[in-house]
């Protein structure tokens, strides 16, 4: 494996403090909160929270609305969880469809069908299902005062469609960079025990990564509770796909391991040898998005977006 010089060497505590739980709190309906994982990054004078888009207020909001109605067993609505996700993904494509409405080729029956389906069916369904559901989206951070630790919730409520990352072909990627510079400068986060990863902490293009190499993610799988344990958890896996070949024209690779709901948005690290420090140092290899399944049976494979996609997008917007 080739070497790469880091900007700094992170301790275990630094890595843990760079990760936060993303939480959707429903302010009505008596529904239980939904959660995922995110992490803090900085570039120049900008500061961000990075997570999977479906966690942080994009099609996650739509899915939460649809699924929460399903879970509430509304007798007027009969919908399976699989159908809820299908509707959610279609609704999520709405912005893509509308943005290309002037480019529709009337001979492209697939595109016309999708556009019509979204406009005539998906939007009304979402509006019906989401009626009366209010929520806040934010991050949770442990705060210790006089030896007592508590969890504080910081609402962020991102704007639908902002901060999304796109693939080289222009398709939306399930990844979001949410700028929190304004909130940080207003002292909302100053003095808190958090750590911001640097853009230079992303693995370099020159680093050699081999099939089967060990990686680990840090996150908050569902079922873990901040009231009992403040820190996120590390889960390990091995590279299961060719590192240099994007899959399905998307900037993703596959990780072999057992991962869980709630880990979406978790940073995935690989340890790289550093000649100067004479030690292995963690580098950000990707962002975990979701698991895989076949006919409802979970498979031990996780889908991870290359961290290079994150670096390219941050450079494009803030350089």
Structure summary:
The chain is α+β, with helices and mostly antiparallel strands and 319 residues long. The chain is 24% helix and 34% strand. It is globular, with a radius of gyration of 20 Å.
Structural summary, described in words:
The protein has a single domain (12-318), classed as Thrombin, subunit H. By secondary structure, the protein is α+β, with helices and mostly antiparallel strands. A hairpin with a 2-residue loop joins β2 (34-43) and β3. The chain has helices at 12-17, 59-71, 81-92, 94-99, 109-130, 181-185, 307-318, and strands spanning 19-26, 34-43, 46-51, 135-145, 148-155, 164-166, 172-179, 197-198, 214-219, 233-239, 252-256, 267-274, 279-294, 297-306. The strands form 2 sheets. Strands 1, 2, 3, 4, 5, 6, 7 and 8 form an 8-stranded mixed β-sheet that branches. Strands 9-10-11-14-13-12 form a 6-stranded antiparallel β-barrel.
- Domain unit count: 1
User: Biggest β-sheet: count, sense, barrel?
Assistant: 8 strands, mixed
Number of beta-strand segments: 14
Would you tell me the structural class of the helices and strands? Answer: alpha+beta
State the end-to-end distance.
30 Å
Rough outline: globular
Number of helices: 7
Helix and strand run: HEEEHHHHEEEEHEEEEEEEH
What is the name of the CATH class?
Mainly Beta
State the low-pLDDT regions, or none. Answer: 1-7, 58-63, 69-81, 91-106
| CATH architecture group name | Beta Barrel
CA radius of gyration is 20 Å
What fold name stands as the CATH topology?
Thrombin, subunit H
Estimate the mean pLDDT confidence.
Answer: 72
Oligomer: single chain
Q: What share of residues are in beta strands?
A: 25-35%
Helicity, as a percent range: 10-25%
